[in-house]
Design a protein that fits this description.
By secondary structure, the chain is an alpha/beta fold. The chain has 15 helices and 15 strands. The strands form four sheets. It has a seven-stranded mixed sheet, sandwiched between helices. The chain has a four-stranded antiparallel sheet with strand order 11-12-15-14, with helices on one face. The chain is globular and about 75 Å long. The chain binds ligand C6P. Ligand C6P binds near residues 26, 195, 196 and 355.
C-alpha cells in the first residue's frame, strides 16, 4: 500500500501536518471520497426519500436503497437483512429491546466481561425486566474467551449469546464462528458486536453464521450518526418493532396498526439519508484498498510498535497479541490522563480512560488505560512518535 497516497485522501491529515492519529478505535478519519459523496447528496438532491413524487426524490430514494445493497454486499448479507440505525449502540439496543419479546423468567443470556457498555447494558436491562439470568463466560488469565469456557456456561437454558467480535480494550478476536455453531446447537441466537471488527476484517455473515451483527459507520471511514444492524431475515421477520411512526407503518386505524416488512419496520421516521449514502461510499473506499491489505498493514505497525516498546522500561502492555490493531497500556506510576497531556502536546492522538468498558478495565485491576489504535493511514513514523512520547511522558512525570 502506498501510505503517502492514502494519507492524501484524508483532509484532516492534510490540514494538520505532523498529526499522529492513533485513535481510530474511537472514530476513524473520513476520506475525501466520502465527504464528497455526502456533499453531492446535499448539493444535487437534498430532499427526502420514499415520499416525494418527483424526480429528485426518486433519485435520492434510489441512491439510498443502492446504499443498502452496497452495505449488504460488504458483509455478504442480503439487502433485506440490513437495518440502518444511529450507530452500533443503537443496533445493539435494538436487538435487545426487540428480542426481549422471546425471553422468559429463568432463561439465560451469555455474555463476557470484555463487552463495551453498549453491548452489556441492554441485556442487563432485559434480565432485570424479565427475571432472566446474565451469565459471564469465565475469562482466562489474559482476559481471553476460550471455547472450553464458553461450553462450561452453555446450556439448554441459553437463549442469547451477546459477544464482541474484537474487544475495544484488549483487541482479542473472539472465535465467533465456533461460538455460533455451539449456540445454535442449543437453540440460542448470537448477537455479535462488530464495532471493532467490521472496519478491519473481511466479514462474511453467512460464513460466521451469526444471527445479528452491529456496527458503526464512523469507525470505518463513514460519517457519524449511522450504523447497521444485520439480522437474519427470518429473525427480523418475527421480531417486533420498538419504535413506531412514519415510514415503518403499513396501515394505521384508530385502534389497529400494521407494519412494513423487515428491515423497514425497524426504521422509523425520515432516515439518515446523507449518512447512509456516505457509509456506502466508505464501504466502497475500504473495498478499493482491500480489507486483507488493511489488516496486513495494521499488523506490521503493531509488530513494529510492540518490538520498540519491549525496550522501554516502566510500561505495562495489557495485550501483546497480534490479533488486532490496538494496544492498551499504562506508564507505571503515571495516570493515563496526565500522560495524555504529553501526547497531546506532541500531536499524538490516543485515548485515555476506561473506554466505555469498565468491567474489563477492572479485570485488568485498573481504573483506566491508555489505548492507541492503528488504521491503514498510519505509518512507522506515527509509531516512532508514539514511542518517543511515551518515553517523554515517563521521564517527565517520574522525575517529580
Ligand atoms: N467504542 C471506543 O473508543 P458507537 O459509540 O455506538 O459508535 O459504538 C459503541 C461501541 C460498541 N462496541 C464496541 C466494541 C465499541 O468499541 C464501541 C465504541 C469507542 O472504544 C467509543 S467508547
Amino acid at each position: 500500500m502506498d501510505i503517502k497516497k492514502i494519507k492524501e485522501c484524508f483532509p484532516v491529515l492534510n490540514n494538520n501536518p505532523g498529526l499522529a492519529y492513533l485513535d481510530s478505535a474511537a472514530s476513524s478519519l473520513k476520506p475525501k471520497q466520502v465527504i464528497d459523496k455526502i456533499m453531492y447528496y446535499y448539493n444535487e438532491l437534498g430532499v427526502n426519500v420514499n415520499r416525494g413524487v418527483y424526480d429528485l426524490s426518486y433519485r435520492a430514494t434510489d441512491l439510498y436503497e443502492d446504499s443498502r445493497r452496497v452495505v449488504a454486499k460488504f458483509i455478504n448479507a442480503n439487502e433485506d437483512e440490513i437495518v440502518f440505525t444511529r450507530g452500533a449502540s443503537a443496533s445493539l439496543n435494538l436487538v435487545a429491546s426487540s428480542y426481549m419479546e422471546f425471553i422468559n423468567e429463568g432463561d439465560e443470556i451469555i455474555t463476557t466481561l470484555q463487552e463495551h457498555h453498549s453491548a452489556m447494558m441492554p441485556w442487563l436491562n432485559v434480565c432485570k425486566k424479565k427475571n432472566a439470568k446474565l451469565i459471564y463466560i469465565p475469562l482466562n488469565e489474559e482476559g481471553k474467551v476460550t471455547i472450553e469456557a464458553f461450553k462450561s456456561v452453555l446450556s439448554n437454558k441459553t437463549k442469547v449469546v451477546s459477544i464482541n467480535h474484537v474487544s475495544n480494550v484488549l483487541g482479542y478476536t473472539n472465535p465467533i464462528k465456533e461460538i455460533c455453531a455451539l449456540a445454535h446447537s442449543v437453540g440460542a441466537v448470537v448477537s455479535v458486536d462488530g464495532a471493532q471488527s467490521v472496519p478491519h476484517l473481511k466479514i462474511d455473515v453467512k460464513d460466521l453464521d451469526c444471527d445479528f451483527l452491529s456496527f458503526s459507520g464512523h469507525k470505518m471511514c463513514g460519517p457519524s450518526g449511522v450504523g447497521v444492524l444485520y439480522g437474519k431475515k427470518e429473525l427480523l421477520d418475527k421480531m417486533p418493532p420498538v419504535e413506531f411512526g412514519g415510514d415503518m407503518a403499513q396501515d394505521v386505524f384508530p385502534y389497529e396498526m400494521t407494519f412494513k416488512d423487515a428491515p423497514y419496520k425497524f426504521e422509523t421516521g425520515t432516515p439518515l439519508i446523507s449518512e447512509v449514502i456516505g457509509l456506502a461510499e466508505a464501504c466502497k473506499f475500504l473495498e478499493g484498498i482491500g480489507l486483507e491489505n488493511i489488516k496486513a498493514h495494521e499488523l506490521e505497525l503493531k509488530k513494529y510498535a510492540i518490538e520498540k516498546l519491549k525496550d522501554v522500561e516502566g510500561i505495562t502492555i495489557y495485550n501483546n497479541n497480534l490479533d488486532s490493531s490496538l494496544i492498551s497500556f499504562n506508564i507505571d506510576g503515571v495516570h493515563p490522563h496526565d500522560a495524555a497531556s504529553i501526547f497531546d502536546k506532541n500531536k499524538v492522538c490516543l485515548r485515555a480512560g476506561y473506554h466505555c468498558a469498565q468491567p474489563i478495565t477492572r479485570f485488568l485491576k485498573q481504573i483506566s488505560t491508555l489505548r492507541c489504535s492503528f488504521y491503514f493511514y498510519n505509518d512507522f513514523e506515527d509509531v516512532d512518535k508514539l514511542v518517543s512520547s511515551i518515553i517523554e511522558a515517563r521521564d517527565f512525570f517520574l522525575s517529580f
